[in-house]
Amino acid sequence: MIDPLSAMAAAGLAFNTFKKVIGAAKDVESISKTLGDWYGACADVNAAERQRNQPTFLEKMSAGTDNIDAESIKILMHKKTLLAREKEIKFLLDMKWGHGTYTELSDMRKKMREERRQQEHARIETKRQIANNAAVGGLSLGIISVLGGGVYLLMLAI
Questions:
Q1: What is the DSSP-derived secondary structure letter of residue 30?
Q2: 37-57 burial, b for 16+ CB within 10 Å, e for fewer?
Q3: How far apart, in whole angstroms, are the C-alpha atoms of residue 60 and residue 44?
Q4: Which of 41, 124, 150, 153 could pair with 11 as two cysteines, CB 3.0-4.6 Å apart?
Q5: Is the separation of the CB atoms in 82 and 45 below 8 Å?
Q6: Alpha helices in the chain (DSSP H)
Q7: 86 and 15 in contact (C-beta within 8 Å)?
Q8: Rounded distance, CA 36 to CA 26, Å?
Q9: How far apart are CA 45 and CA 4, in angstroms?
């Protein structure tokens, strides 16, 4: 399970590093790792929220309502902080490389995410087809073996 506090700490570290790097950066590629760390930390915070929204049986039984209320407030505050920092990142990118840079970056991320999703679906479908073809081949071989064995036994009986 992802700890929301450590995910938020990672997001804060990535954000502070991004602010330092963007001042000295000459092109978008030079800040790509830092920005990637930021988005990764944001994804961890969002995953922690999803895990908290869908607790396991043990978590439901062991957590009291006070704990749930406190965690929900923490997650909400983390999300608000991330949104404020994302607005600041948008402002910094747009100021450094012109208006629309952040929007262009967001559009590229969406496109790349969709391409990866399609590749993953294609990979899963390929694995499904391979398993299906192997099953059909195995069954065909089994049927041919049984028929061949039957014909052999008939030939011995005659």
A1: G
A2: bbeebbebbbebbeebeeeee
A3: 21
A4: 41
A5: yes
A6: 4-24, 32-53, 57-62, 65-97, 101-157
A7: no
A8: 17
A9: 6
**Domain range spanning residue 56?**
4-157
Q: How far is CA 154 from CA 43, 142, 149, in A?
A: 67, 18, 9
Long-range contacts of 138-146 (CB under 8 A, 24+ apart): none
How confident is the model over 52-62, as pLDDT tens digits? Answer: 777 666 666 66
Q: Which has the higher per-residue pLDDT, 33 or 5?
A: 33
80: which 2 tokens?
Answer: 């608000």
CA atoms lying within 13 Å on the CB side of residue 16: 5
Question: At a CB cut-off of 8 Å and minimum separation 6, what does 55 contact?
Answer: 63
Report the SS3 class of residue 28.
helix
Per residue in 118-132, pLDDT tens?
A: 999 999 999 999 999
